Amino acid sequence: MRSLSTMLGNKAWACEVTSEDLARYFSRLPLSNPTLSSGQWLPEFRTPRHGIDYENENKSYIETHRHLWPDDSDLELFMQNPQDTDDRSLSLEVKRVVDFCNGKTLPPVGIDELGDGQDPLVAWLDERAFEEGVFSSRNYRGPLTSDGLGQELRKRRYHYGKGRAKVPRHPSTMRNLGWKPWTVLSQVKGSPCHKTSNPGIATGRTSLVCGQVSEPDADRRLIFVTDLDSASIHALISTASTHQAPALRDALARHLAFEPFGDVKIQADGLSMFELGFHLPGLLCRNFQTTDHRRFENGETLRRTIDISFLNWEPGLPGEFLYEAQVSCVIAGLHEHNWVAYCFADTYFDGSNERRETVAEYHKDALSECGMNADPLTYGNCDANVPHWDPRKYFLAVYLHRTKPVIREWLLLTGKVEHSFRIYEQV
Q1: Residue range 379-420, pLDDT digits in tens
Q2: Which residues contact 319 (CB under 8 A, 6 or more apart)?
Q3: Fewest Cβ atoms closer than 10 Å to its Cβ: which of 21, 159, 207, 424?
Q4: 245: phi then psi, degrees, rounded to nearest 5
Q5: Which domain of life is it from (predicted)?
């Protein structure tokens, strides 16, 4: 993947989303609740909603519901709808996820960047707090392995539960205008604790865990994962809260299904919540062959590779191969200052090609002299240190920037087919 700072001219662009953009886009999406129109963004979504017991966000769905179905595996427990108490047989969608996680994941081709345990770096995490008009951020962890992502997500999302007691912040966690790459934290091998690469930097307030300093709450959480596999799925499901479980459950099932989908869900009954999502499958053409390293239990690959070299009628041309790939994004939350965004992107098809999108490349760009802390969910087009807090605007920004590559690849493919037909007619 080329340097993002080179492609973007050292600045984020096209990240502003207007109210007109919101109205135009959301009016076209289906609503799961037919009693609500796309313009009915509930008033409580615009407020902090201090009456909510945020301590529930620190408890995983599996931990909370394990006593109900003690014989289910973690994956079966998480993926099944808790309302289906009478019939616990697995639906086709759940079976697909279970079969995938029971399959074998081979070492990915072309990923040279490995974590401490020699596992590939596949995840990026951004966590920020917002209170009284000021935002603060947790330390940037750099690219993460699936295990590293799980370790970070197992940390308490909120230090204080009901009432959100106010605590003094360390100045270094305040408005993040002075972000520098040396605030990156590195994992200490064999230890759950972390340390800064610069011992003179301190963030947050003193914690009782490992003597380390604690960090701000994670009101807004962005999670980006490349080539979603069984390890990253387990990291996500083992840490998702009860409020996040329905959105993540749906996101995993739809991402594996390789089907286009877009939806807006507004839950008005009980504790009101929102969910915004899109799933964009695509076909990409490359002149080299590789294979998806992720397998179902029966040995089939998650995404297919098809040899289309027969389209080359001209002698001396390299082979051509068609790859299935998908990008999915789901945002779910309780209000505009409490939400989580999940984004899953397939990248296996680029193998060892330098154009491959990896979290390690985003990290290198962030550390470069003229780089920025690019947001992978927006394909590196937005600065993560200039965060969107309105989930609708952020969702639309992700959608706009993730749709462009899919359209570009489709146009390249159709152009190649049309060219092949023209050559055939001349033969």
Answers
A1: 999 999 999 999 999 999 999 999 999 999 999 999 999 988
A2: 287, 288, 289, 307, 309, 312
A3: 424
A4: -60, -50
A5: Eukaryota
User: Hey, is 222 helix, strand or coil?
Assistant: strand
- Helix 92-102, helix 245-257: angle, nearest 10: 80
Entry field: residues in the chain: 427
pTM for the model: 0.82
Structure tokens at 78: 């998480």
Return all residues near 407 (Cβ < 8 A) that are at least 6 apart: none
The helix/strand/coil state of 357 is coil
What 8-state DSSP symbol labels residue 140?
P
Kindly report the backbone phi and psi dihedral angles of residue 302, in degrees, each rounded to the nearest multiple of 5, phi listed first.
-65, -45
End-to-end, the C-alpha distance of the chain in Å comes to 38
Q: Of the candidates 109, 181, 188, 197, which has an alpha carbon nearest to the alpha carbon of residue 148?
A: 188
Q: Could you tell me the two tokens for 145?
A: 């392995």
353, two tokens = 């090609």
- What's the number of CA atoms in the CB half-sphere (13 Å) around residue 164? 19
How many Cβ atoms sit within 10 Å of the Cβ of residue 199? Answer: 7
List Cβ neighbours of 391 (8 Å cut-off, separation of 6 or more).
274, 276, 331, 333, 336, 339, 341
